[in-house]
Amino acid sequence: MKRIETALIRLAAALCKGEDKLIRDCIQRALAAGATATQLREVIHTSYLFDGYPTALEGFRILGELTTVQRVPRGEFSYTGDSVKRWRARGERLSRKIYGPQFESLVERVRQMAPELADAMMVEGYGKVLSRPGLEPALRELCVVAILAAKNRPRQLLSHSLGALRLGVNPERLRTLPGILEGVALKGNLLRAVKIINDAISRYATP
């Protein structure tokens, strides 16, 4: 795996640990590897979906201490009828790629279990955030896998590991991910992640 990819994946998990020194170190290593401020912002932006606003805000604060803060056009994030329609459409396109044949059942399950989250998942999650330019979809999905591995979320980890494979991530590349997170995530969580990722690879390889 390329140094930039490794650095961004480690940052994704480090953000959830909440240790300023670790986050700062991961950002500096990513910059040294050649990562752009845009890529770093996208990893941080992705983290709020899986670990909340405090995690993202702290990440942006530290990034601002180490790099020049980029001004993002406000209109890019404004909630208008047109933008919500656009986010929903591109969110559905991406989630269909990630979940494949399980897409319809997933959407229905969320609607039944948590109707309050169903529309937000498609519009805010997959449309407004995960479909954003600035980070290649497969790499962003690996960052999501890193966060879920670090946080020990086995069901979501399995789904997004399969999603990474559906987005074209090589199985061997996916297998290296727990090793990349050593020193960032708890050892027990990484051992569980190895089993789940191997399960995802087996399922993906089985017709």
Provide the fold topology:
Blueprint: H1 3-17, H2 20-33, H3 37-51, H4 53-66, H5 81-99, H6 103-113, H7 115-129, H8 137-151, H9 154-166, H10 171-175, H11 177-180, H12 187-205
Helix pairs in contact: 1-2, 1-3, 1-8, 2-4, 3-4, 3-8, 5-7, 6-7, 8-9, 9-12
Order of helices and strands: HHHHHHHHHHHH
List the total number of helices. Answer: 12
How many β-strand runs? 0
CATH architecture name of the largest domain:
Up-down Bundle
Domain count: the total is 2
CATH class of the largest domain: Mainly Alpha
Distance between the termini: 27 Å
Structure class: mainly alpha
Radius of gyration: 17 Å
Largest sheet: none
Strand share of the residues? under 5%
Report the CATH topology name of the largest domain. Answer: AhpD-like
The CATH homologous superfamily of the largest domain:
AhpD-like
Subunit arrangement of the protein: single chain
Low-confidence stretches: none
* Helix proportion: over 70%
Summed over residues and divided by their number, the pLDDT gives a mean of 94
Name the shape in a single word. Answer: globular
Describe it.
The chain is mainly alpha-helical and 207 residues long. It has two domains: 3-72 and 134-205, AhpD-like, CATH 1.20.1290; 75-127, no CATH class. Helices cover 77% and strands 0% of the residues. The chain contains twelve helices and no strands. It has helices spanning 3-17, 20-33, 37-51, 53-66, 81-99, 103-113, 115-129, 137-151, 154-166, 171-175, 177-180, 187-205. The longest helix is centred in the middle third of the chain and has 19 residues, at 81-99. The radius of gyration is 17 Å and the shape is globular. The model has no long low-confidence stretch (mean pLDDT 94).
